[in-house]
Amino acid sequence: MVVVVRNSNKRHRINERFIKKLAVEALLFLKNPLRCDELEVIFLSDASIRPINKRYKNKDRSTDVLSFDLGRLKEILISSDTALRNSKRFNSSFENELVLYVIHGILHLSGYDDGTILEKRRMSSKEDKVLRRLCKSENLSKVLMRP
Question: What is the pTM assigned to this prediction?
Fold first, then answer.
């Protein structure tokens, strides 16, 4: 499978190669459940993700993560603006939020849902396991590009 990472939100410098590496490691840890030819992870602004959320989810607001299963292509759209805002809200780091959103998107594409309390718990538990695994092998501060 090919993993492509693009940062379309120029307000936040993101190390696309490192995100790709983390996505591949997460997929390997999960035993590659996506069954696709390509996974795209695209970082957007709140202003860019909002109309997509409205069109496909009927919610007229920005969101953190959107996942799309397009058959042999899977897409994860992430608002890095929301990640930064939520990192402050949840007393987390921006890097951890971005990685969490990548994992969250992969899990959605793998069949996990977070519509009910029970589903949220199950998904959150799996996110934590994957995040702990990635933190053991990588320094997540590499997520951001340093000037």
Answer: 0.91
